[in-house]
Amino acid sequence: RVKVDVASHSPQMEPLRAPLRRALDGLRAGAAGVPFYSAVTGALLPGEALDAAYWERNLRDPFRFADATRALLDAGFDAFVEVGPHPVLLGAIRQTARGAGREVAALASHAREGDPVLALMATLGELYARGYPVEWARLHPVGGRCLSLPTYAWQRERYWYDQLPAGGDLPSGAAPPSGGHPLLGTHLSSSQPAGERFWECDLGALHPHFLGDHRVQGTAVLPSAGFLELAAAAARVDGDDGAATLEDVVFDRLLALPEEGTRRVQLVLAPAGAGDLRFRVCSRESAGAEAWTPHAAGTIRIAAPGPDAAAVLDRDAVLARCAEAVPVGEFYEAMRARGLEYGPAFQGIHTLWRGPGEALARLRAPAAVGPDAARYLLHPALLDAALQAMAAADAAPAGVVYLPCGVRRWRLFAAGEAPEWSHARLAPGSVPGSDRLEAEVRLFSEDGRLLALAEGFCVQRLDAARRPRAADPESLLHEIRWAPLPDAPPLADADGEWLVLGDGGGVG
After folding, report:
1. At what angle do helices 65-74 and 90-99 cross, to 10 degrees?
2. Which of 51, 231, 353, 377 has its CA 20 to 30 A from that of 474?
3. Is residue 238 within 8 Å of residue 197, measured between CB atoms?
4. What is the pLDDT of residues 159-215, one digit of tens each?
5. How far apart, in whole angstroms, are the C-alpha atoms of residue 162 and residue 156?
6. Neighbouring C-beta atoms of residue 503, cutoff 10 Å
7. pLDDT digits (tens, 9 = 90+) for 30-73
């Protein structure tokens, strides 16, 4: 159906026939440059026939568009482009093709209120994809060179170099002060509630640059080591010059980092009684957004180092139990297959040995970490590499993915000293492949001194019932599953169109 103001192709046009013929007197038609199928005759027509008498018939006679379309289909045509400011006849073309049992491409050159260039380019691309030749010289008159694209699926790995502004990683917003901690950002205090202090910083996949090397199923996320470093650094700025202990740390949601731009991250410290502090880490999409998403929380306890600080690494005894040497390249490739993608900055394991429920890793700070490592208490990339030893200790079945969900106690005894060894040991009762695993991870210096200790470091299966939640609603942690409906006879209308039914729980 076409909305018109004049009843063309009907007896109402009879009074206009003679004036139109006189106006077109002397019109000389020529040969057509392309085959011309007429909606007046419904068939192929030579260009010389398009004289004044033809256009008189075109105004008065029936519009035999369906006949002309069927003639084109019989001639083997299967792509139609309607040239005009808005598509009017594409529906009729599709309907006629369906009646003839044919599948065709019906494309528009433009659509009302749309971008005409984009519409033309989209139609050109569709025709080219269907095998039609393109006169590239008309599209690119200055020349160029066509390249063949890969035939395999895109791997979607980003190699684009983004030029960062001079003066640091963070382009704007809450940038860390000169000489300050790279992650904490701007230090502020709050009058309400009394005693709360907080820091804000803008973080992204490229701000700081190394964070883009830590990905879960393709999405850059802040590692759990980043949350531990944030809390420990805030405790030190707040007045703790010794070894702060983080307790009952919970990683509630992944903090997804944007590929371009940044996300505002805030760490808040609040008094918790008896000299302790409660911390929480939240984020929001931009400085002007209202909603904050919580990601991690825990308690900071200022206490003496304790007897564990004097522990040393008995390397020979551990190696006697961890007799299996694991090729590091194979280890990281196995992690990638599980969806845990560690780029150069997070491949800090140099040598790896494994035993039943236990692993020992020799660490080496990757060059991709950059020159700012000394500004951290313990660089998150190196701490994350130390915690990766747990993945070697659990020996989970292929395809099982674990993500950190909490730490019962984290203690850093020697801030600023890079560890050389990481020893991970699963807790009793932790069965590889189960929904939740717990381990103790100890970090040692080259000469075997204990530098840091993670007790009750917990990970949880990604597909477990209570899975970690990500801030992004289109997160990698969400998936679509189709639920089958009970068998029912198919329903179709008279033209063979399928009817779609919904029962509130699925689609059939």
Report:
1. 60
2. 231
3. yes
4. 554 443 333 343 344 444 445 788 888 877 666 666 788 898 899 998 888 999 999
5. 17
6. 9
7. 999 999 999 999 999 999 999 999 999 999 999 999 999 999 99
